[in-house]
């Protein structure tokens, strides 16, 4: 058997470890240092840290490319968008993360980008928007509409059009979707979410199979200073070790919740992409959705997702959310609690507000 682990569950546990030497620690220690003794590979901490390197080795191995970590998901997004030449056109899923869209809109106002918003589930429409574009930005599933993109088709079309293809795969993680294998040039993660998995880290990551793109992205990080803290990198790597088992439980919960919510009172629609840990329910209006969010006791009203705890949020409470998202849509991030407790709490909130 090869010494190199091939199954993702094993890679998540084994990659990014120190060499197996007698007396060596299992984990890469947290290196708190602003500078290093001259003459080695590292000299100043804005350009590298052994704790980052361990995380980047593990996440890069999972995605099948070279990883560059960042202080936040948005720092990662910003670094990738800097690859677009001035005034270049970016084709983007209209229901992408709202701050990705806000960053693009800011750039459009100053002439940095031309933004072409598309329905990512309509592959014909996405392809029609590609001619002359510099970058095609996909989310799959989208946040919070949970639409799916035909990644192999769209990345192939982007390449034929001369555009770089990027997939924000935060909702899937490399355990469920490996965009580089599906033809993407770059994959982006808010590692704050499923990868770290415990709602205690803000961190981002970019992975690419192209050495030149990786070098440009790393250069951007060094110049702009959007570097991860060593403690954050350590915690994210520790969270990554249990990603597969967390996903197994949370995904099972999510699929069962979809079944139980199908005929729940007041639910107009259940949106389930069929994989991952994020669902959405659509209620009649904002008031009905707000009542549910106020009534739950176990679910946590919060804007983040991907942790071991279950959270929910009416997304249109944010003025910057896309107007095409229904006012009554509640995004559900399903955690690893017992399914009966999660379902009882949510169904009670949808009903009379009491858990029997």
Nutshell version of this structure?
This protein has helices spanning 8-14, 50-63, 73-81, 98-109, 123-128, 151-160, 173-176, 211-224, 230-241, 243-261, 286-295, 339-350, and strands at 66-70, 88-93, 113-118, 133-139, 164-168, 186-190, 204-208, 267-271, 278-283, 300-301, 311-314, 329-333. With 356 residues, the protein is α/β, with parallel strands linked by helices. The protein has two domains: 8-241, Type I PLP-dependent aspartate aminotransferase-like (Major domain) (Aspartate Aminotransferase, domain 2); 244-350, Alpha-Beta Complex (Aspartate Aminotransferase, domain 1), CATH 3.90.1150.10.
Report on the structure:
The structure is a single chain. Helix content is 36%, strand content 17%. The chain has helices at residues 8-14, 50-63, 73-81, 98-109, 123-128, 151-160, 173-176, 211-224, 230-241, 243-261, 286-295, 339-350; strands at residues 66-70, 88-93, 113-118, 133-139, 164-168, 186-190, 204-208, 267-271, 278-283, 300-301, 311-314, 329-333. It is globular, with a radius of gyration of 21 Å. It starts with 7 loop residues before the first helix and ends in a 6-residue tail after the last helix.
């Amino acid at each position: 058997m090869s010494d190199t682990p091939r199954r993702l569950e094993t890679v998540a546990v084994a990659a990014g470890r120190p060499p197996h030497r007698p007396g060596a620690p299992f984990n890469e220690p947290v290196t708190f240092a602003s500078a290093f003794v001259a003459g080695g590979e590292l000299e100043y901490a804005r350009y590298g840290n052994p704790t980052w390197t361990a995380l980047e080795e593990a996440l890069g191995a999972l995605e099948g490319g070279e990883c560059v970590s960042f202080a936040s998901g948005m720092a990662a997004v910003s670094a990738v968008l800097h690859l677009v030449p001035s005034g270049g056109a970016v084709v983007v899923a209209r229901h992408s993360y709202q701050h990705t869209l806000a960053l693009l809109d800011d750039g459009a106002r100053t002439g940095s980008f031309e933004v072409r918003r598309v329905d990512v589930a309509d592959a014909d429409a996405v392809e029609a928007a590609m001619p002359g574009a510099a970058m095609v930005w996909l989310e799959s599933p989208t946040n919070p509409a949970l639409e799916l993109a035909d990644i192999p088709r769209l990345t192939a079309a982007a390449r034929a059009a001369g555009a770089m293809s990027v997939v924000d795969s935060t909702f899937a993680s490399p355990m469920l979707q490996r965009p580089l294998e599906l033809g993407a040039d770059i994959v982006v993660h808010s590692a704050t979410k499923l990868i770290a998995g415990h709602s205690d880290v803000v961190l981002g990551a970019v992975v690419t199979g192209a050495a030149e793109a990786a070098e440009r992205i790393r250069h951007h990080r060094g110049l702009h200073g959007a570097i991860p803290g060593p403690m954050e990198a350590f915690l994210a790597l520790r969270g990554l070790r249990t990603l597969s088992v967390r996903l197994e439980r949370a995904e099972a919960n999510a699929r069962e919740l979809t079944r139980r919510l199908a005929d729940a009172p007041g639910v107009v629609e259940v949106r389930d992409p069929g994989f991952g840990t994020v669902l959405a329910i659509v209620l009649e209006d904002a008031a009905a959705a707000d009542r549910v969010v106020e009534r739950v006791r176990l679910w946590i009203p919060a804007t983040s997702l991907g942790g071991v705890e279950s959270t929910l949020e009416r997304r249109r409470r944010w003025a910057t959310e896309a107007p095409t998202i229904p006012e009554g849509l509640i995004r559900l991030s399903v955690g690893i609690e017992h399914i009966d407790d999660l379902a009882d709490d949510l169904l009670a909130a949808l009903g009379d507000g009491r858990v029997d």
